[in-house]
Amino acid sequence: xxxxxxxARLIAWDVPLHLASNDDFSTVxxxxxxxxxxxxxxxxxxxxxxxxxxxxxxxxxxxxxxAQPIEAxxxxxxxxxxxxxxxxxxxxxETIGNSIKATCLLYPFEDLxxxxxxxxxxxxxxxxxxLSTQSHQFHAILPDTPCDALLDIGAGAAAASxxxxxxxxxxxxxxxxxxxxxxxxxxxxxxxxxxxxxxxQSDVYEALDSRTFDxxxxxxxxxxxxxxGESYRHGGAHGExxxxxxxxxxxxxxxxxxRAYLSTLACDHxxxxxxxxxxxxxxxxxxxxxxxxxxxxxxxxxxxxxxxxEVGELDFDQGAQQVRSFREAGVTQxxxxxxxVARESGDGSQVMRRVMGQGTxxxxxxxxxxxxxAEIADLLEQRLVLSPWSTLESTSALSENRWRSFTRVLDCxxxxxxxxxxxxxxxxxxxxxxxxLTLREALGQADVDPDDAEIFFECLVNAGAxxxxx
Length: 470
Ligand SMILES: C[S@@+](CC[C@H](N)C(=O)[O-])C[C@H]1O[C@@H](n2cnc3c(N)ncnc32)[C@H](O)[C@@H]1O
Hints:
alpha/beta; Rossmann fold; Outer Surface Protein A, domain 3; 19 strands; elongated; binds S-adenosylmethionine
């Protein structure tokens, strides 16, 4: 763990965890492993109902998943005195009267154990649990392909960093602005005995000098706030403050050929869609990059604010102020999205936008950089394959006592979600696009201008619904 950056502003005065001896870490690691403190047994026991600490894993579940105190002697009989003493030495449990209770959440994550704050702990420097839906979305967009040096900005408890260090990254730097997060992250690094990761305190890139990485990942705070916010979730007036700084620093810190994977929220403006705005944030060297935005959800700005008012996050006056601020800046909608930035040139589109579909993940995001219509010469002569996750929804209307098909909508769920009206000639041709025929052959004698056909099918290639065969 390295020294703090100059703007690090959060002082962790009540971190329960202690960076105790290697022996204590090793004893707790062995305990978690030997009793099988793993995802499936925990899920099964939690589903089964109320507490039942009649064995060691039951004690750990009661302590760390149910946040229940347990009588100290009864727990020691099941965990063993040495293991219980090591849990105490690490600060994972504390004694209250005759009982012990957990000081934080501890859970299995991939092949690691991660400590973070209990959900609902209300504090500015809350250590975000890697089990949250948002963190789950973040982890799902991260490729597990080998890389040399990975930087995780806003690492929190460092679950993504440590999983990368164990599985696919030669070296990892987990950084966070918050002292409390940095201590939890270092604790988790030692608990999991990960030697090729370092934990540093840094305000975005501030403590990194001119270090470069071939992979940069971030799940920055992005909830809009007009006042002072909580550092783990608030991202300035429109939610984009930290995201902007992450993007601005890529020209200095992302190596040629490297990629950045961000899980965030960003704004469409009336005069510019968000993918163009984010591309501009890359700065004067933006022509070195390609950028993909893939949406999970988008909401008109007023609806977004109404949701915050509904859940009591903002009162009515604050909501009205937030709406005014969005209006003045021309914000039309807020988009929860993944952003992938590749430091590479290529003949394909520099800026792309897609919608997440069923099973869209890291592989699909990466593949979007490979196929691009600009690289596909003479589409009519290509053998194209329609995504098998496609359906054609057709509506018929009565005309002269016969049902006649009158609208057709192509819905494709993979690799991205894409819907479009589909003319009859296109629907006929799509049925034959399994890679055995060229597009010209599939169209046959269809009564359509070849240029119109090419434009229609180019859109489908662009959206990933059609893939050229190799
Ligand atoms: C939404 S949490 C994500 C935590 C973790 N990466 C995850 O996905 O579970 C955002 C994290 O960013 C950190 N953070 C906020 N502002 C930051 C900044 N200016 N520089 C670095 N980290 C920051 C917070 O302390 C918090 O840990």
